[in-house]
Write a structure and sequence with these properties.
Number of helices: 8
Structural class: alpha/beta
Number of strands: 8
CATH architecture of the largest domain: Orthogonal Bundle
CATH class of the largest domain: Mainly Alpha
Distance between the termini: 36 Å
CATH superfamily of the largest domain: Alpha-helical ferredoxin
CATH topology of the largest domain: Fumarate Reductase Iron-sulfur Protein, Chain B, domain 2
Radius of gyration: 21 Å
Strand order of the largest sheet: 1-3-2-6-4-5
Oligomer: single chain
Strand content: 5-15%
Length: 263
């Protein structure tokens, strides 16, 4: 895994962090060191420490964060929704690894303090909430919907053979959590021009869809020194993906298809 980079608009003030002690009588204490930053309020980012009694807390990192927000410090901001690893809302950097807070248990993180930061190298809106506007714009840029020129059958949907469906089954499982793209050094340095692993995985999903009739157009769109070829197969994306997908492999297949098209 490449070195963790702080969010784009942050330089932590190591002296400003607050400490919230564990409640009296706590027997199983665990400290959570959480990144705090409110750009609208001014000042520099800090890391606050929260000591929780894990006997009174759920097992997941998200449980701990919600306990902090609900019972200790209501000013903490984070995204969350499904709590089942489906929506991707609670993506953040936990102990140096991009992951989902709802599927990462505190027990599997060893016995030391748990460090929680927002997704790296993204503008921070507040605390653990990053601005993913560019990320979603890149996803939209690959036109992630079925494009056809022939009319659909009048009496049924467009059918697909089972083998063809299996090809798109895994790429379709992406939940757009941004763990992969924000773990990629090429994306850190070229996010305004490089589409990134998540968007390219989405492009691949439609390129290989047997029902889609815009394969050439889609390949033309990604064939660019920055949009596609900034991928150097570092494999951070595959390691970070909480759904066990492999964007790097998909990107490699796109490169192969473009090479074969030239011959």
């Amino acid at each position: 895994m490449a070195e963790f980079r702080l969010p784009a608009n942050s330089r932590i003030d190591t002296r400003a962090g607050k400490h919230y002690p564990a409640p009296a009588g706590a027997k199983q204490v665990r400290v959570f060191r959480v990144y705090r930053f409110d750009p609208a309020a001014g000042g520099r980012p800090r890391v606050d420490s929260y000591a929780l009694d894990m006997e009174q807390c759920g097992p997941m990192v998200l449980d701990a964060l919600l306990k902090i927000k609900n019972e200790v410090d209501a000013t903490l901001s984070l995204r969350r929704s499904c709590r089942e690893g489906i929506c991707g809302s609670c993506a953040m950097n936990i102990n140096g690894v991009n992951t989902l807070a709802c599927t990462r248990s505190c027990a599997e993180l060893g016995s030391g303090d748990i460090r929680i930061y927002p997704l790296p190298h993204q503008p921070v809106l507040k605390d653990l909430v990053t601005d993913l506007s560019d990320f979603y714009a890149q996803y939209a840029a690959v036109k992630p919907w079925l494009k056809t020129r022939t009319p659909p059958p009048p009496d049924r949907e467009r059918l697909q053979a089972k083998d063809d469906q299996l090809k798109i089954d895994r790429p379709s499982a992406c939940i757009l959590c941004a763990c992969c793209s924000t773990s990629c050094p090429s994306y850190w340095w070229n996010s305004e021009r490089y589409l990134g692993p998540a968007a390219l995985l989405a492009a691949y999903r439609w390129i290989i869809d047997s029902r889609d009739e815009a394969t050439g157009e889609r390949l033309d769109m990604v064939e660019d020194a920055f949009r596609l070829y900034r991928c150097h197969t570092i494999m951070n994306c595959a390691e970070a993906c909480p759904k066990d997908l492999n964007p790097a492999r998909a990107i490699g297949h796109i490169k192969q298809m473009l090479a074969e098209r030239q011959h």
